[in-house]
Amino acid sequence: MISVKHVFKTFGSGAAATTALDDVSLEVARGEIFGVIGQSGAGKSTLIRAINLLERPNSGTVTVDGEELTRLSPDQLRLARRKIGMVFQHFNLLAGRTAQGNVELGLEIAGVGGAERRRRSLEILDLVGLADKAGAYPAELSGGQKQRVGIARALAGNPRILLSDEATSALDPETTRSILDLVKTINVQLGLTVLLITHEMDVVKRVCDSAAMLENGRILEQGSIVSLISTPGSRLAHELFPLGEIAPHPGNTVIEITFSGGSADRPVIAQLARSYGLDVSILGAAVETIGGNQAGRTRLELPGTPLFNAAPINDLRGQGLLVEIVGDGAVVQGAHA
Fold it and tell me: Class for domain 235-331, per CATH?
């Protein structure tokens, strides 16, 4: 649904030029929720604005629903943008318009008649749970309600894609959860493809089907959450299940076992200790429900060296578990599933 290929974007020129996007390529499948995660300054907002060409790339292509936006004329681009709704971090509502008036704005600009504007705006406000707030002004709404109006406004024109630029970062945790649940609901009910920008890993855990990690304008990794969890050395997977610092005893082996789906229910540690007579120490564990499935990572300390523990480690890998040998806080090269 969204295809970004070899996009570069710089600001300024000469020695003062800053590269915001550095050869970025990503693919978002039709109907999925795709998260782009990164810290401030990573290039996330530039990327999302490049997708609807609010920022035109210096080079590379952006294709949305089979149409290459980077080749369109200004008039053609205005029409193509009607397929794309956008939700902003700070709501961007017009203070002098009611909730209904804010939702109608895009339809009004598009030339939709008054009766149809009113029908559609009330329909969408009902969808986002604000049917009773149609006549309220932004100053009379909570932060979560303002964001629901922003989402309703983005949906009013029946877009195929919803872009969300840090839409929950100004909200408290409980409101954030309710907004993310709403995004998931409209993703399912309307068949929308959603691309959301965030710096919060909890957002990715709660609603995303796939994700990409952006750092210094470059994509470090991307893929479905399920595949990333099963990828040795995945930074995104490690940040989904943080376990803190490693403090092994000298001469012992520290391993991390990543599990998902059915493997989450197996008594892996008990079987390991029983089968090999090992005194296994649990150094940490993190478990989450992602995409409706339980997944997580457990850090264990085994007595003896990695060579001494080769048999139990290979046994775990033979069960289809991702096992990584770790030390000094870094994954040892060569660890594999």
Answer: alpha beta
